[in-house]
Amino acid sequence: MPFEADLAHALDRTTDSLEPDLTTLMDRAVARGRSRSRRRRSAGVVAGAGACAAIAAAGLVLPGVLAGVRSAGSDMEAVALAMPRSAITGTQMIDAVKKTFPGSRFGQEHGQSNDPSNPNGGWVANGEVDVNDGRGAANVGVSALRLKLPLRDGDGLNCDNMVGRADAGDTCELSELPSSAALPGGALVVSEKIAERQPMGAGSVPDSEIAHRWTTTVTLKSTGAQLQMVQWNTAGDFGGGNTPKPTRDTPPLSQKQAVAALTGPTWAPVLGAVG
User: Fold this and answer.
1) Is it true that the peptide bond before 199 is cis, omega within 30 degrees of 0?
2) Which of 92, 173, 154 lies closest to 126, judged by CA?
3) Which pLDDT value is given to residue 59?
4) What is the pLDDT of residue 79?
5) What whole-number distance in Å separates Cα of residue 5 and Cα of residue 10?
6) How much is the pLDDT for 73?
7) pTM exceeding the 0.85 threshold for the entire prediction
8) Cβ proximity of 188 and 127 under 8 Å
9) In this predicted structure, what is the pLDDT of residue 72?
10) Which letter, b or e, does each residue of 92-103 get, where b requires 16 or more Cβ atoms within 10 Å of its Cβ?
11) Dist CA 247 CA 209 (whole Å)
12) What's the chain look like in SS3?
């Protein structure tokens, strides 16, 4: 999604102790989600486990390449990225998103490739598409990256970043999937629902006008491979840091369905390539 939206979210989770190359950071942020990286995995900012998404302000994520990053006001340890096992193109990511919603109509789309041979080129692949399954338009993005082992606490691996957000109706749930042929060693799953009030912190806006994003993060415990899906109940132009008004009440996929999709045959090649 829109870079401005990503940036807004990223600023909310900025780091205390990092001294990044801001020019590189912003360049990666723009390239990576152009938009919405929405919240996790930021290309240069986030090293947080959920995909390093600091810059992703709104929900998706921007690839994180820096290690040792810590979210402001957080006790979580930063999680560093590891080099992907093979390259994944932005087109592959976009196609996989579309295959996740068969029979739907698709709007604007954006993709980003990873580059295992060049750490400065980005270690996160990303695909984002506006999806309409007949129940209203939504924006859906999926990012793929690999975390260094052993896994440690960090964004995308726990719900620590949700402290103090319960009053806003935001939720977070942590669960695990057992080891299987598709998920050797099992996986950690973090499911979140976040209300995006415009302007930020506005409390008088009717619920019907507040957009939400649902973030589902699946991390393989054996390899560190991680997929993160961000669904918005709105779509269109996120430019100017604004979030469009809701176009539907619920996301295209429930959290359970999102987990099933990310661990199913459509995304298996991506999980294998990244981890």
Assistant:
1) yes
2) 92
3) 39
4) 60
5) 9
6) 35
7) no
8) no
9) 32
10) bbbbbbbebbee
11) 9
12) CCHHHHHHHHHHCCECCCCCCHHHHHHHHHHHHCCCCCCECCCCCCCCCCCCCCCCCCCCECCCCCCCCCECCCCCCCCCECCCCCCCCHHHHHHHHHHCCCCCEEEEEEEECCCCCCHHHCCCEEEEEEEECCCCEEEEEEEEEEECCCCCCCECCECHHHCCCHHHCCEEEEEEECCCCCCCCCEEEEEEEEEECCCCCCCCCCHHHCEEEEEEEEEECCCCEEEEEEEECCCCCCHHHCCCCCCCCCCCCCHHHHHHHHCCCCCHHHHHHHC
| Contact (Cβ atoms closer than 8 angstroms) between residue 65 and residue 52 | yes
Phi, psi of 61 (to 5 degrees): 160, 145
Neighbouring CB atoms inside 10 A of 119's CB total 11
Q: What pLDDT is stored for residue 8 in this prediction?
A: 44
Phi-psi region of 156 (alpha: psi -120 to 50; beta: other; left: phi over 0): left
What is the C-alpha to C-alpha distance for residues 160 and 166, in angstroms, rounded to an integer? 12
pLDDT for 205 equals 66
Q: Can you read off the two tokens belonging to residue 245?
A: 């008004």
pLDDT of residue 124: 95
Rg from Cα positions in the chain: 16
Taking the alpha carbons at both ends of the chain, their separation in whole angstroms is 25
Please give the Cα distance from 64 to 143 (Å, whole number). Answer: 11
**The pLDDT value given to residue 247:** 94
Distance CA 230, CA 59 (A): 6
- In the prediction, which pLDDT does 118 show? 81
Residue type, 30: V
Tell how strand 125-132 and strand 137-146 pair up: antiparallel
**What stretches in the chain show pLDDT beneath 50?**
1-77, 200
Give the CA count within 13 Å in the CB-facing half-sphere of 155.
Answer: 39
Place of tokens 């990092």: 18
Residue with tokens 């269109």: 236
Alpha-carbon distances, residue 112 vs 11, 37, 131 (angstroms): 22, 11, 18
